[in-house]
Design a protein that fits this description.
This protein is α/β, with parallel strands linked by helices and about 130 residues long. Helix content is about 30%, strand content about 25%.
Length: about 130
Amino acid sequence: MGVTANLVPNQQNGNNADGANNLVVEVTDQSFNDHIKQGYTLVDFWAEWCGPCKMVAPTIHKLAEKWKGKVNFAKLDTEANIVIPSTYGIMSLPTFILFKDGQAIDGIIGNQPEQAFEQFLKKHISE
């Protein structure tokens, strides 16, 4: 399941506002369903004030590069977007939910090492 053109922000430098690669797409309450409806998508529920969220971000960007073409990666700011986190009962940050074709299939909570995320993804997706 590859990254489709509409999932990648159209920016000249290829980076999001935070300087991260554009393989991790920022989504909102309004755009969320469009981004998870096809293939596998790992969504990072985070907040600006969350230290562990900031600490795990580089790991997520590495995984997005490694799993490019197999998993889409998105992040949703839970402070600016309250509908989707409420819908999925997000109580702790960071929380990661893996979706397949729009359906939540598994989740992982907290700042985990890269190997934990690798095992989590491999449990559901063949490399």
